[in-house]
Design brief:
Length: 222
């Protein structure tokens, strides 16, 4: 009987020990599982933090890259603007120089043309003088001659063409002497004209485009 009770007690004790060991093992497993979950949660949190930090870093890097690109573009644009201004200034200077050259060339051409025209006119004026002298010596009878009429027509045509070119006769008789247009070769007593007034025209003077080609040869009253 005593042996049976001892065996029973041993079995109960063994069961209790097994139960306690099993409970301890379960607690340990639960603790390990909790630690694992905590570790996973911490790892996930760290990963999220790292991902967030990485995203922020990427955004900052992208913003910095954009700003650097903008600055680079701004520098290029400024350089292009400066170059464009330099080119515009150069073009304006060249245009101004060309305009000055054109005006100077036109003026030189005009002066050369006037000099050449005046030279030709100076050679024609003695022909006009001869026509006038010849026509002035003709008598009333000669004026009825066809030759006289022909000479008179040629004279009028010549004078008309000179007038079209801008050759004008200088006014002399009865006007005040002006050394810019008149060449006084003598002084005469005159009852008709006051002192300093031209009383006689010895040779006609002419201008070409307001420039004197030949001065009038005159006599001035004294």
């Amino acid at each position: 009987m005593a042996d049976i009770n001892e065996e029973t007690l041993d079995e109960e004790q063994t069961v209790a020990e097994e139960s306690a060991a099993e409970e301890k093992e379960n607690k340990q497993e639960n603790s390990e599982q909790e630690q694992t979950e905590d570790s996973v949660a911490e790892g996930s949190s760290e990963d999220n933090t790292e991902e967030s930090d990485q995203a922020d870093s990427d955004e900052e890097s992208e913003d910095s890259h954009k700003k650097g690109k903008w600055k680079k573009n701004d520098k290029k644009l400024e350089a292009l603007k400066q170059k464009n201004e330099e080119l515009e200034d150069r073009v304006m200077r060249q245009m101004a120089e060309f305009e000055n050259f054109r005006k100077r060339t036109e003026k030189e051409k005009s002066v050369m043309f006037e000099m050449g025209a005046k030279s030709v006119i100076e050679k024609i004026l003695p022909v006009v003088d001869n026509f006038e002298r010849g026509l002035a010596t003709a008598s009333d009878e000669d004026k009825q001659d066809p030759i006289y009429e022909g000479m008179n027509l040629i004279y009028k045509q010549l004078v008309g063409e000179l007038d079209k070119l801008g050759v004008k006769q200088i006014e002399a008789l009865g006007v005040e002497f002006n050394p810019e247009f008149h060449n006084a070769v003598m002084q005469e007593e005159s009852d008709e004209f006051e002192e300093g007034i031209i009383c006689k025209e010895l040779q006609k003077g002419y201008t070409y485009r307001d420039s004197v080609v030949r001065h009038s040869m005159v006599a001035v009253a004294k």
